[in-house]
Design brief:
disordered C terminus; about 290 residues; eight-stranded mixed β-sheet; alpha/beta; 8 strands
Length: about 290
Amino acid sequence: MTMTSGTPTPATPLAPMRALHTGSGDPLLLLHGFMMSPHCWEQVAQRMSSHCEVFAPAFTGHWGGPDFDGWYLDVSALADRVENQLDELGWRTCHIAGNSLGGWVGFELARRGRARTLTAIAPAGGWQTLSPLQIRVGLKFLSLVPVVELGKHLPHAIAFSAPIRQAVAMILSKNTASAPRRAIEAAITSAMHCSAMLPMLAGGIRASELPDMSTLDTPVRLLMCENDRVIPYRAYARRFLQELPESADRILVHDVGHVPMLEAPDRIATLIAEHVYASRTRLRAV
């Protein structure tokens, strides 16, 4: 497994990862969530690398990605850079799996004709601009700003202490004991190095909402997480459930939180692989 990294700093337990690139076979793009990094895909990438060439880049303004110092950043801008990276790899199209914000970017890339298949895991973007749902999730992330800023000034031993790791694990997962310490520490570090935090929140207010999905040609598999504490599927998956073509898979993944790759990498890798390789005549809803 090749990890393209920047220069590690003494204050962080892990090195920033510009991209995770491993394996050979069908091209598979893995996209992480807001304030996360490619580290969250390590376990899934390891499982998929035997039959896929896996590429998991860091988004602009996120830990490992290019810095961003503007006022506004949106999904379209994130997708622009990912498209450039796909061109550099020589991938005209690829299979895509994205979690949360990564799922939203995945839909944008599918709209641009870059996706062979799309597996959207607890995708963000299932709201109209300035709707109560968007405002609610925006306020939820906005409330994390002072917490993240405080974390930047705490001693390493406190910022990565067991109580802090447990609190972060509870936000991201259902079975906190199943989420590896390395992954949780990477999530903490990613949040503290996310220069896109406020620009993304501001950009979401200005940007266009996710276009209608009813005419999307890309085969889509929607994975909803039963114990999602960040964007609960009962409210935030409604638009996906209503607009996606009937041919799309709609699967509720039981007993997992918002970032299920951390606690159930075997299940998530299997669900992605099934969608990449299975016949399109299979059952459409589970």
